[in-house]
Structure formats: C-alpha cells, structure tokens
Hints:
The protein is of the alpha+beta class.
Amino acid sequence: MLGLVLSICLCCLAAAATAGANITEVNLYQQLAGCEEQYLVEKRITVDRLAQEKGLRWPVVVRQNNLKKPYRLKKGMTLKIDNTHVVPDDLSHGLVINLPELNLYYFKDGAYQRRYALAVGKPSWPTPTGNYKINDKRKNPTWNVPESIQEEMDEEGYEVVEKVPPGPKNPLGKFFMGTTADGVGIHATNRPWSVGYYVSHGCIRMLPDEIEKLFPQIPIGTPVKIIYRPIKMALTAQGRIFLEAHPNIYQKKMKPLALVKDLAGKNRLEDRIDWDLVAKVLKTREGVARDITKDPPEAKATTTATPAPRPQENTLFPLQGKEAKLE
C-alpha cells in the first residue's frame, strides 16, 4: 500500500516540463488501423460515449454526420464513423500513450492489439512524457488525497477529505496501475464522462469497463512510453501516405507544415504528396488519418489511329493496383 500512497500523493507533482518543450520532428510510421464504417444505433448511447469507444473526439463524430444540437442519437439511426488512424509503434511490447490524441495503444509480443480512450493532465498539470514501467497494480485502491487537492477543495468550498476508501466516490475507480513516472498512474474513474478530455492532475484515466479488460493483461514491469505527437504520418506497404493531426493541447511551439515537409524530405516523399490535402488535414486537426498521396495523372486518350497491339500477358507487381487494407 505504501507504493500506492506515494504514487497518489505525487499525483499533483507531475513534471511541468512537458508544457515547455518544442516539437522539432515527426515520426514516419507504417501501420494503419480503424476504418470508415456505417454504425447502426441499436441501444441508448450518447455522442460522447460513442466517440470514446471509437477513439475520436465528439465534435468529429458530430461533423462527420452533420448532427444538429442537442446531438441526441436515436435507436435506428445509421451514422458514418471514420476512425482510421496511424498506429504509433514506438514499442513492440507495452503501452504507448499519445497525449494529444488522448489514446493508449497496447502492443503484445510485437503485435498491435488495440487502443483505448483516455483523459490526461490538464495544461496546468500536464502528464509528462518519457519511458517508464508499470510498478504497481491495485484493485479497489484507497485514494490518499494530496495536500494540494485538499487546498483546492477548501478554496472551492467543498468538504476537505484526506482519504477516500474504495467505492463509488473514489476517483480512482476499481483499478489502478502505477508507473515509474512521478505521480502518474493509469486508473479507472468515477467520472467516465471526463474521458476524452485533458482534465486530470497528471494521472491517466480510462473508462471503467475498458481498464477492467486491460488490467489483467498488464504485468508489473510492462514498458510504458508516453509521447506527445499531435502529428503522425505513415507510409504503408502499398506506398500510400497518410497524415493525421490532433489539437496541440499543451500549446507546444511547433510549425506543423514545416514538420511534415521536413519528414517528407528525409524520406524522399515530397513529390508523392498532395500538399493541398496536407494543408486541409493540418487545419481541421480532426484526429483521423487521411490519404495525402498524390496520384499520377490519368493517361490522356490518343486520337491518332494506331495498329492494335498483339495480345500479351501483363505481369503486375504484387502490390500494384491494390488499396491499403485498413484493419
């Protein structure tokens, strides 16, 4: 229990270094996941919750479907959901957390498993980046309230408490995984509606039903890499180039277009990219990976009569003419 006490007491001491650093480069990845689908509303669900399940922000779901206020979803509605995304395979085994997109990626033995929606630290209490490990796991943890949060309770007129036992009022929920990052734990929450936002004191919240499934799969010692990448780019095996952009939640200094151009130059992709599409992706920052590949112009039909060529078998390169398959 001491490890949990120390971890929770440090929750308000998460390093603020994350907020000040500049973004000077973008990684080139290779894998895509997600897809464009027709989603049939079969049960009562809110736009917020649907967006959380699909790894999107709710305004994106609203825009994709031209929903009108108050954005109520009714049984029988069919929605267009596009959650195509670039997989940040910075680890071959462990957890990769990309703060701007509010998602956690789980890799096991070199294979990508799935991603999970998160809530992360607010700008005044940013979640730090870096390489860490899971060093503690607790079911039904007790929350020892840090003095700084007790002061907030007092200032805002709430009852000041020093300890919250397991139960519905515990903000850690039923599952807690501590990390070697000072003050940063990955835990459930009694406020599931906060997932999909940057609102915590540095810790990482997950939906209760999702962390319940992930928790037993993560042993002590599992690597955790926390990254800050508002821009992700991928070059698929089929030669298609995808770009994905998210809001710069901690307002780091960055020049998005310059970053993309620099990455394209390093990989000799400048002439294969439609830069008008790049500008659109960087402007909307909707968090959906878009194909920015510049397709070659179609061959113009000739008007000069020419003899018909002798029929012959054409052998195509295995990937020629095939589209990227989104998993």
